[in-house]
Amino acid sequence: MALNASRNDLASGAIFIAFGAYFALEALRYDFGTPFRMGPGFMPVVLGGMLIALGIAVAAKGLGKPDKEAAPPWPLRGIVLVLGTILFFAATIRGLGFIPVVLIAAFATALSSSRNTWLSALVISVGLCVLCLLVFVVGLGMIVPLIGPWLRF
Amino acid sequence: MDLFASLGLGFSVALDPINILYCFIGVLLGTLVGVLPGIGPTATIAMLLPITFSLNPETALIMLAGIYYGAQYGGSTTAILINLPGESSAAVTAIDGYQMARKGRAGPALAAAALGSFFAGSAATFLLAAFAPPLARAALNFGAPEYFSLIVLGLLVSIALAHGSIIKALGMIVLGLLLGMVGQDIYTGTPRFTFGLRELFGGLNFVAVAVGVFGVAEILRNLENEHEREVGVKAVKNLWLTRDDLKRIVMPVLRGTGIGSLLGVLPGGGHILSSFASYSAEKRLSKHPEEFGKGAIEGVAGPESANNAAAQTSFIPLMTLGIPAHPVMALMIGAFILQGITPGPNVINEQPALFWGIIASMWIGNLLLVVLNLPLVGLWVKMLSIPYRVLFPAIVLFACIGTFSINQNIYDIYAIAFFGIVGYLLIRFGCEPAPLLLGFVLGPLLEEHLRRAMIISRGDPSIFITRPISATLLVLALAAVLVAVLPSIRKKRAEVFVEED
């Protein structure tokens, strides 16, 4: 793609603008107040505006200056598996309980590296499960059901 | 209370067997994460924050501090043995340290690094003990306008010392400030940016943001290009320095300690800057500059002393003003708050045992580190052969379980995933994560002091420039930005910050 601009600058500028716009627009719904008595909306509106301006500046600076290095490959498998694991952990820790969640989560994360095989991932997940049990439940006395209510009959 | 009585109190706390044990655990973990590339002290402390919740405040902070300065030691081992800085501040050590290792002088290089670090750490801790109390007393006179200006100064200086684009760093700070505003407004109680979720009324969880931006984002970054490390040096022999070596490192260690102590106080990465400053100073002052880059022992001893001195003095702004000098210190603030203590000038008076205990523990920690690092270096070499593919699932799980155990709040875990992907994207597009975290921690403080100052002045913003201390701080902040945009400094920055964290 012949894009005569720095992709990095455009993308980070866009992220800044998106966040700035969200915060500023949402904050407009709160009481703005006066400089004497600032309301809850004052700082977010001002800072959100600044972030939008900075985002535009970052993007503008990148125009006409393409990145010198090629972008590294996207770790798609890693993104899906690592983030998926974290979401899975959040969604099921209360229901499934500590042991099953840690086993599955460790297995899935380990597979996000192309260097792990099914077998090594399994070994890692069992090892980690034992380690986490010792550290958090035995060592630190964390209160969490080991086998959750979803698995009880 | 005079200095020696205070230190006596400090040692009585630090020499408590439980505290020694946790100090040892701290420096051990610190060395471990310092040695292993791909996981740094920031992510480690973020993950361990929840664990420290159940400990005494003294014990918890002694351990966390130990992780931080322990990582500075460990980072040099990796730099010397495999030419890869385990920790960003050890990047300079790799230049000459690795060359020494290739010539079979890994032992003396490690010894020079450890002895220099020990001396620098001990000397800088003394400076911390001597200068913190008067500074804290001065800070007690600060009102809302002064605090506001001080926070602005802290934020802006962090840009001057961070690498990469200045506008991007500014953007990251503002983004951090905004994220810090999530939750109930302090004055009116209005919930802001909470999506109506009760769980977000207390604000975003600091640990979740830190773990996401520093831990998960870093893992995704490492998964882009997977390659195995090679350990060139299998065994380290001959740790003793010759008489000639000793003579050559005395002055570099002293100078490094001075440079590091001074720069460490600055917000935003003083420990990285100081090792570079020390290296270039040694090269300039050396009688045989041609040896630098080919295994000059001065090039190892100087920077290593500098970054360790800076690691200790960076506690000064934290303990006296409650202002973090860099992300690790921001995490330390989180640790104080978790323990119900507001960091700032009052800590020294209200919690003298805590304050002096932490300082005294730094000497003990530094001593433990020499013991850990020199005789046990073989163990650390073995550690380097743990493959990353085993390491990172452990990091992800520890992050999740640790964060969950603080409040049993599953939204904190969703926040890790969110900040992991946002952090990864921003880092990939060339933005530094450190200013964001600094902004996030300081955001609520900044807003509170700004609003309070404006109420004091009845809406007149000139209060910030008519009060002398506040005006001075703002001028310094402006100067920091001007210095950062000056072309000659810009070029230097590009040379200096070539490594990644």
From TrEMBL, chain A:
Name the record gives this protein: Tripartite tricarboxylate transporter TctB family protein
Per the UniProt entry, what species is this protein from, by scientific name?
Devosia marina
Report keywords, A-Z. Membrane, Transmembrane, Transmembrane helix
The reply to whether Nucleotidyltransferase figures as a keyword in the UniProt entry is no
| Chain ranges of the DUF1468 domain | 11-145
Transmembrane portions of the chain: 12-30, 42-60, 80-107, 119-147
